[in-house]
Amino acid sequence: MAEDKFEKIDEQVDPQEQGRQPGFEKDMSPEPIYDDKDYKGAGKLEGKVALITGGDSGIGRAVAIAFAKEGANVAIAYLDEHEDAEKTVKEIESYGVKAFKSATDVSDVENCNQLVVDVISEFGQLNVLVNNAGKQFPQDDFLNISPDQLMETFTTNIFSMFYLSQAAIPHMQKGDSIINTSSVTAYRGSSELIDYSATKGAITTFTRSLSQSLSDKGIRVNSVAPGPIWTPLIPASFDAGKVGEHGGDTPMERRGQPSEVAPAYVYFASKDSTYVTGQAIHVNGGDFISS
């Protein structure tokens, strides 16, 4: 997909805001690019089963479709965005694989345990866990971050990764993988997303530590750290003015599309990365360059 196509679409972003986490893709204008038609699958995930949290929309939807193109059966978990989730299921199935969806709150440990039980019941196995669900609540003043906000951000963004990984690992084998969604904010910080950035920093360290813990089992653990990507989380988090400027301050001077992030997850899920664990791929338009 040519870069000028992304730039052309980026110029057409309408002023918009949703004010409700984690947001609806169906209400975005223009709709994010979640399926790069130029991306052709090569059977890299045939015979695999993947579970993706936050899989109804945004990066999660794009990853689900990319995995489907590579031959994986895909389960998605989401909060309550039923219309978005149903569309994602249809997109997955259009590539000739099976899909499963579950509306659940992954900030609760019992929900996470049941989710994995349901996936195993549906498919009989679990090979790739993508911990992708997340929320963010911008605050101009650090003192305005309430205990309730702090708890919601941490339970959704990082506690859920502990819960789901603990539930999934007993069902995983050598060659399987866990992929966590971090963020550029974990590396450069964000003055208005301090609690969110802190969870993403925790995810980075969680990834490195869990990779060491599971190395003897042959289960790889890596992360993807996106920059400003056009997902429902953006109009759900910021006012219309900031939404319109989103991504404009990157060296590439544009926001990224979910389809531009998805191949990084395919790499970590497939045999292409058999000698890679505890690492992060930065997909951010040059917003942050890792040392």
From TrEMBL:
<feature type="compositionally biased region" description="Basic and acidic residues">
    <location>
        <begin position="23"/>
        <end position="40"/>
    </location>
</feature>
<comment type="similarity">
    <text>Belongs to the short-chain dehydrogenases/reductases (SDR) family.</text>
</comment>
<feature type="region of interest" description="Disordered">
    <location>
        <begin position="1"/>
        <end position="40"/>
    </location>
</feature>
<dbReference type="GO" id="GO:0008206">
    <property type="term" value="P:bile acid metabolic process"/>
</dbReference>
<dbReference type="InterPro" id="IPR020904">
    <property type="entry name" value="Sc_DH/Rdtase_CS"/>
</dbReference>
<dbReference type="InterPro" id="IPR036291">
    <property type="entry name" value="NAD(P)-bd_dom_sf"/>
</dbReference>
<dbReference type="Pfam" id="PF13561">
    <property type="entry name" value="adh_short_C2"/>
</dbReference>
<dbReference type="InterPro" id="IPR002347">
    <property type="entry name" value="SDR_fam"/>
</dbReference>
<protein>
    <submittedName>
        <fullName>General stress protein 39</fullName>
    </submittedName>
</protein>
<feature type="compositionally biased region" description="Basic and acidic residues">
    <location>
        <begin position="1"/>
        <end position="11"/>
    </location>
</feature>
<keyword id="KW-0560">Oxidoreductase</keyword>
<dbReference type="GO" id="GO:0016614">
    <property type="term" value="F:oxidoreductase activity, acting on CH-OH group of donors"/>
</dbReference>
